[in-house]
Amino acid sequence: VRRRTVSRTFYDAVALLVFAVMLFPIYWMISTALKPGKEILSLTPVWFPSHVTFENFRTAMNVPFFWNDVANSLIVVLSVVAISIALAFLAAVSVARFGFRGRTAFIVMIIAVQMVPLNALVIPVYLLLNQVGQVDSLLGVIAYYLAIVLPFMVWTLRGFIANVPVDLEEAAMVDGATRVGAFLRIVFPLVAPGLVATAIYGFIQAWNEYIIAYVLLSSNSKQTLTIWLASFTTQHGTDWGGLMAGATLTALPVVVFFLIVQRHVAGGLTAGAVKG
Amino acid sequence: MGVAGDARARVTGGTRIEAGPSRHVISRNLLPYALIAPAVLVIAGVLGYPLAMLLWLSTQHYGLRELFQHEGQFVGLANFATILGDSEFRHVVLISVVFTVVNVGLSMLIATGIALLLERVSRPVRILLSSGLVLVWATPVVPAINLWQWMFDYEFGVVNWVLTHVGAGNYIHHNWFENPLQGFTVITVIVVWGAIPFLALMLYAGLTQVPRELVEAAEIDGARPWQVFAMVTVPILRPLLLILFSLSTIWDFQVFNQVWILLNQRPSKDYFLISVYSFQESFRVSKFGLGAAAAVVMAAILLLVTFVYVRQTVRLTTEEAV
């Protein structure tokens, strides 16, 4: 027994070390963002900001086009989420509740399409949008993001709907509800948390995307936040305090939303390989 | 090993958590098709069509002039002949493969270590470490790259200071990107750091599913800890491991953002991974045909891995065997 407690203490110590190493970069980003300039550019690292300041955040928000790009990010992300959640829900209902010819083919497509290397598709997408004059327009980006998030959303929502027993619907129908009525009153409320989780997943994906936005959106006023972060680096060097503040601001909404849906996202990618 | 075989059968049986549409009458009407139609249209239009165009483009001479005329010249497989005959491109493919193997290997190794650790620590430490992992996992890629860029900064980077002060050598004013091997080390650190949380948490979830009796039985039979791991745990987790390996491979083989952002959007030729090469050919040199051909080569190499992933996922989640 004593050996057990000793080895447990040892493992605990190793785990705490792992924790420190993994989390340090995030701590360093936030603490840099909160430090005054001379504590950032110090040859000996200042481990704890002695004078917490929000100056870097103020600088970041005053960088040209910040608010513009926040608006762009929001427009893109909200359009993508609104459209994709509706389409994904319909498709997921179909896959989870009906047997039909081609169902398996559709499932295979949904899974396979998520693995298409997106970096490879940038080239034709750019040329296509160039032909119809939609380069440097948010519309092209929205369309493309839709296709990126849709397969995963269908797949996760299918899981949520399949988990609602059909008996519940049938019972409602025995009691006189129509099929649509039973679905809307019984299944929909039960699936609502799943819808929220899936929508947030779409939000995160679209918010984080880099390469498509980088290629398609060339003018400053049309960029999204991930692209805007490059504006802290100029020929004169990088404003690290501002960049870390900007990075924190860009990461914040994602982190908050991610913490809400984390469990469901993991389930979708390795569906079935791990129980629960 | 009989025990492991049994266990595998048990777990595979147990993972079929969702039955297919066994209880519904196969509906002959058009409703299910109408429901999937919008999603299919979007996916086909926005992913399928560009994918087809990518293939078509890889057979075209498509440069700046063609870009303005909106029309390429058909050259057959000449683009493939050009890049495959180019020693520089072959080098890029080699680097990408080595990079992927190293990154997937390191990520899986460290993640497995952390998963095993999570199984052995006390409850409060487990909660602390797993919440920490979730936080890292939640950090978006682009800000993460920026923060590592800052940590590895040659002048004020905290990494150089720490390395110097733990006696690893003189890293004061050390530029990590002068030597590509060191540069790729930094890129690997970023990729592995970002990949660990997802893999470790998944593996830990898998470990908790390994039946306790089996491990104990093997221990009573005199198996050493690593034997238990290799002959009981790993076989049971095989489906999960297969999926995690293929996902990691797919992700790491396409690494682009890390290189691009870390090197301030102007990576030198030493840093060309296949996706960077394809991007550079297309958007910097305006040889879209060649860039597309490189992208097709990348997708083709990934196809096999993708196939394994898709088959495994479909097998585990639908009743109809595919």
Structure, described:
The complex is a heterodimer of chains A (276) and B (322). Chain A is mostly helical and 276 residues long. Chain A is built from 12 helices and 2 strands, in the order H-H-H-H-H-H-H-H-H-H-H-E-E-H. A two-stranded antiparallel sheet of chain A has the order 1-2. In chain A, strand 1 and strand 2 (237-238) form a beta hairpin. In chain A, helix 4 runs antiparallel to helix 9 and helix 7 crosses helix 9 (179-208). The longest helix of chain A has 32 residues, at 2-33. Chain A starts with a helix and ends in a 7-residue tail after the last helix. Chain B is globular, with a radius of gyration of 24 Å. The longest helix of chain B is centred in the first third of the chain and has 34 residues, at 87-120. A two-stranded antiparallel ribbon of chain B has the order 1-2. With 322 residues, chain B is an all-alpha fold. Chains A and B meet through helix 1, helix 4, helix 5, helix 6 and helix 7 of A and helix 2, helix 5, helix 6, helix 7 and helix 9 of B.
Uncertain regions of chain A: pLDDT < 50 for 5+ in a row? none
Cα gyration radius of chain B (Å)? 24 Å
Strand order of the largest sheet of chain B: 1-2
Q: Gyration radius of chain A, to the nearest Å?
A: 24 Å
Head-to-tail CA distance between termini of chain B: 28 Å
User: Main β-sheet of chain A, in a few words?
Assistant: 2 strands, antiparallel
> What value does the average pLDDT of chain B take?
86
One letter per element, helices H and strands E, the order of chain B comes to: HHEHEHHHHHHHHHHH
Helix content of chain A: over 70%
The number of distinct β-strands of chain A equals 2
Distance between the termini of chain A: 32 Å
The percent range for strand residues of chain A is under 5%
Number of helices of chain A: 12
Count the E strands of chain B.
2
β-sheet strand percentage of chain B: under 5%
Poorly predicted segments of chain B: 1-27
Helical amount among residues of chain B, as a percent range? Answer: over 70%
Q: Helical segment tally of chain B?
A: 14
Shape of chain B: globular
Query: Sheet bearing the most strands of chain B, described?
Result: 2 strands, antiparallel
Oligomer: heterodimer
